[in-house]
Amino acid sequence: xxxxxxxxxxxxxxxxxxxxxxxxxxxxxxxxxxxxxxxxxxxxxxxxxxxxxxxxxxxxxxxxxxxxxxxxxxxxxxxxxxxxxxxxxxxxxxxxxxxxxxxx
Length: 104
Known about the structure:
About 10% of the residues lie in helices and about 55% in strands. It is mainly β. The chain has one domain. It has a six-stranded antiparallel beta barrel. A hairpin with a 7-residue loop joins strand 1 (about 10-25) and strand 2.
């Protein structure tokens, strides 16, 4: 494993299984529809229509078909045939400040 792959592996959380592959959207009884996406085992919702500039899925949390974006991003884990089988959270690498606190 090269240095770049090692850094990427450290940035990814553990695999989270998929619980469902369709998402109910809209309030119950009013324009309720089903959209493409994923419900993860931890309850996070990932919509096909909600991705960042890197292609990662933007996590959502909600209730009764209404969802709010979260700051969490997820990358798919694919099987040998290229189908998505799970997701891993993309963790931000902390950035060290270039400025030091003034000494007193």
